[in-house]
Structures are given as C-alpha cells and as structure tokens.
Task: structure prediction
Amino acid sequence: MTRVAKLRWISLGSVLALIAVWSVVTWLDLARPDALPSPRKLFQAFIAMIGEGYGGSPLLKHVGMSVMRALSGFVAAVVLGVPFGILIGRHPVLSAAVAPIIGFFRPIPPIAFLTLFVFYFGIGEASKIGLIFMAAFWYVVLNCADGVRGVPELLIRAAENAGLTKRQLFFHIIIPASMPAIMTALRAASAISWTLVVASELLGAQAGLGFIILDAAQYFNIPATFIGIILIGSIGLMWELALSSLQRHVLHWQGR
Amino acid sequence: MNAELIVARGLRKAYPGRSESDPPTLALEAFDLRVAEHEVACIVGPSGCGKTTLLNLIAGFEKPTGGELTMRGRPIGGPGPERSVVFQQPALFPWLNVWDNVTLGPRMRSFDAEKLRQAAERVLASIGLEGFKAHFPYQLSGGMRQRVQIARVLVASPDVILMDEPFGSLDAQTRIIMHEVLLRLWTEHRPTIFFITHDVEEALILGDHVYVMSRRPGRLKAKIEVPFARPRGYQLIADPAFATLRAQIVGMLREEWEAK
Result:
C-alpha cells in the first residue's frame, strides 16, 4: 500500500471512530437523549426528512437554495474580485488608494452588516447574496493582489529577456505564475461563502439549510438541527475536496 | 582580431542609499571593457565587486549611472533577446514543459513555426535533452535545468550569451560535464559568451580572455589572454602552464581582498 493510500485509510478510520464513540455514548445513556440523538435515530430522521421535506419544502429545495445563494455570492466575488485583485497587484498607485479602505472593512465580521443589508436590499435574495459577495470579495482581491506581487522577479526578467512584450508578459507569465495564489483565493472565498450562508439565512429566509437549523432549534427539534449542521459540513467538505483535487491536477507544478 | 561587439567606456553604476542622507553605493566606476565577436569572455572578481551588476547592465535589466555601454556601437536600452541570459538559478517557467520553455520566446516573437521546431529539435538533441521534451522543470535535476536554460538561449540565437555563474550551484562532477557541453556547443555555434564566475579554473577552461575585476567599486584590473588551444578538455588542468596562470590570477584576486 502506498503512503498516500495508507493515510487515506487513517482519515476514513478516524471518521468511523468518531461515529463509534458517539454511538457508545448514546447507547450507554451518557448524554440526555433529547440533547444528543443517537446516530441511528438521526439517520432515521434523515430518511424521514428526505421523504417529507421540512417546513413544507422538500429537503432538496433547502439544499438547493443554500447552494444557490453561496454560489451566486461566490461567483460574483470571483468574477469581479480576480481582475480587480490582479489590477491592484500590478499598479502600486491603485493599491495605495484602496489599501486603507480594504484595511478598514476586512477586520469587520460580515455579520455586522446583516441588518444594514436587509435595510438596504430588503429581506429577499439580494441582501443574502450581497452579504456573501462582500465577505468573499475582499479575500479574492487581497489574495490575487498578493499573488501577482509575489511573481518572482527572476521569471519576469527571464521573460523580458526572451523578448516578450508587456502584454505577452502579463498573459503568458504573470497570470499563470499567479495561478496558485488565485486558486488559494478561490478556496478561501468559497469556504467563506458557504460559512456565511447560514448567517445570511438567519433573517427572513423561508428555505435553506440555515433556515432549517434556526427553525428547528426554535421548536426543540434537535435531530433536524443536527441534520442541517451535518449537511452543511458534508457539502462544504465535498466542495473543498473537489477544489483541492482540481488544484492538484491543474497546478501539478505548484510548490515543486 | 574580430570586430568589437560589446564596449564599455568609463562605465559607472551607483545605487542610491537607503535614505537621502545615506551615501550612494558605487558598484562600478571608470569601468572599461572590450569584448570581441565570437569571444568567450570570463569575468572573475572578488565577491561583491559588481560582476552581476555588469551583467545586468549589459542585459538591460538596469541602466548605467554614467559612462558608455554599447553593443555594435549602439547604446544598450532595455532587455532584449539578442542578449540572452543564462541565470544563476534556473529561471524556467514551472508551468511549461521543457519544449515550451525552450520555444516560448521565439514563439512570442512569431518565428516561423517549422524553422523553430527544427532549431529546437537540433539544440535539444545536441545538449542531451531530446528525451525530456514533455518533462516539467520540477521533474529535472539541477544540471538538467541549467541545460534547459542553455538550450533556450541557443534556440533564441542571440548575438551574445550572458551567463551569471550558471554552474555555481551544481556539484563538481556535473560542473565538469557542463563545461564539456558548453565547450562543444561553442565549437558548433561559436556564439559570443560573456561568462561570470568566481572560479578561476572554470574561467581558464572556458575563456579566450579572463577579465579580472578589482574590489568594489569594480574596475577592470587586468585582461589576461588564455593561450590554450581549442578544443579543450578537463585534462587541461594537469598542464603546468594552466597551474601557473591560475596561480597568477588567484594572486591578483588575493591582492584585492587583502587590500580591504
């Protein structure tokens, strides 16, 4: 067995061990059953929820709504943030102009803007997607700018020496050399977008995984709350695995 | 004697200090140099004497503060493919394979595709890389990466090849092999080579002339003609004349760092 395969089995084993510990704890009645449902009970509730839906909507609609919101905010942040970040990275004057603004907004938790966004954009999709966009946008911009600034001077000199024009240097050297940083920006931004979905659904959502968690907790429906949390975790994990495997394949040269 | 290719007259390069009150650092001053066409010019000097500054000026990466620096009588402007550099560290593009690394520059300058393919095939074969066209830089050893850099420069067919301690980070055996590769390539293509090194032995094996620089600010201390006939091999180091010349140049360098 290769080392990588062995490590994968260890990762899988630790997940199974966690579920085993959880089963034993609930089986021995070490926790209040209404506070911590057993894995078996959760699974049954999950199957039931697939059949019946939650709060009048099918489960798939809840998942779809959350994914749609996160993806809309994320895609908008990438489409606008990547070119803007690259521009800032290349132009010190522009960078100096926006640095204080970014520096001010970045440490503010995006949640702080939630009520303001609802006030500006209403209780519908715009305020939720807008919040996700704003949080992800700064990450994309800053990471892309850093990536562009971090292109080794040696590679730029080698390209100039080979006779590349300014335009060729930008598209054939600066962009590919910044790809690892851009990819890191996308991963961080997608994680932030997904994290913020729950927060954005705290106000006025009628569907979504965040809505399930909030709504279920209000009625002490603990299994449904757990299902919402586990779904958010699993979808986030799958997305991260997909992105990192994409990165390993496309940027196979990274860090070597 | 061949025509003069690169000429420096009273060349001066100063770097500004950290603050306005800090005095500028003089890297080169009153530096004179004449390199002829097809010559292998080896530059040796104590560390920090401005060797790399000199190469950066010829390559066009930096601008002189004063004096004159010309190629074929015309002042050197910015960087250009007619003055190709082999960098000290392998400056390969990690996302391109060997073939694309070697052909990138000419492709961007819209060379005839078929001629470029033939030239690249020929150069890669002569430098022992024909089996590695699809390899990426991270899959190659240090010596192979430097070969790719040399291949890239040869495909660009420049007027002068500028080499900045290209074998400095290689182990002793690989170095000897690289010297032989370079000597053979020189016989085939006869390019003008401007070669910076801190290794006197390397300078004497490769060079037609050894240019000895003074400590900073760098001036030309001596231009020494290397009398050994080509083709040369590593056996040259056993020649008593080689040892004498080597001792003479090492003595000059010693004077420089003892004078500090």
